Give the backbone structure.
Amino acid sequence: AQSVTQPDIHITVSEGASLELRCNYSYGATPYLFWYVQSPGQGLQLLLKYFSGDTLVQGIKGFEAEFKRSQSSFNLRKPSVHWSDAAEYFCAVGAGSTGFQKLVFGTGTRLLVSP
Amino acid sequence: ETGVTQSPTHLIKTRGQQVTLRCSSQSGHNTVSWYQQALGQGPQFIFQYYREEENGRGNFPPRFSGLQFPNYSSELNVNALELDDSALYLCASSPRGLSSYEQYFGPGTRLTVT
């Protein structure tokens, strides 16, 4: 069965510092991978996606992620964190079968930004 | 372009009661999925609707049911509420096909069962 692991429950980063959030997936075929962000009390906003092609994908708000098949990873990065980036981040893999498509999410990483 | 909207924002129900949550999909999207997000957890897939029929379901009991209407809006119904049903319920819409994996979420409905 498809699964996603986000090993870090909380991460604290100083404003202006770089960020990397880890994501590992389990999926037999070529995965469809996503990163979403959730601010307190809000729904999920799609940051970026990987379907195929270039393994380095760019997203909104200055985020990027790199797909590494050999490591079954899809880590999210940002070169310089802003205080407004404080939120919960979820990695997800597209799963399902013929006829329907679902997302399987990790348990999330809460990002705290210190001044 | 109007995004995904959900109503109500918050809801408090008593154990054993029934609840209906509503979702309007994003313009141009004909597929709707529902997810349950318990506190401190990632969202869990409940089911997906396309052409007014359920075409995929997660590990949720039959007391979780849904509807999709001709305008692609959707309802989630939960009967015989249990305390563990307290969660944020998220609706997501997407176009059909491969892009159905690219799902756009509404703000959610926070359900509290007492």
Remarks:
- The interface with chain B takes residues 4, 32, 34, 36, 41-46, 49, 51, 90, 92, 94, 96-97, 99-108 of chain A (CB under 8 Å).
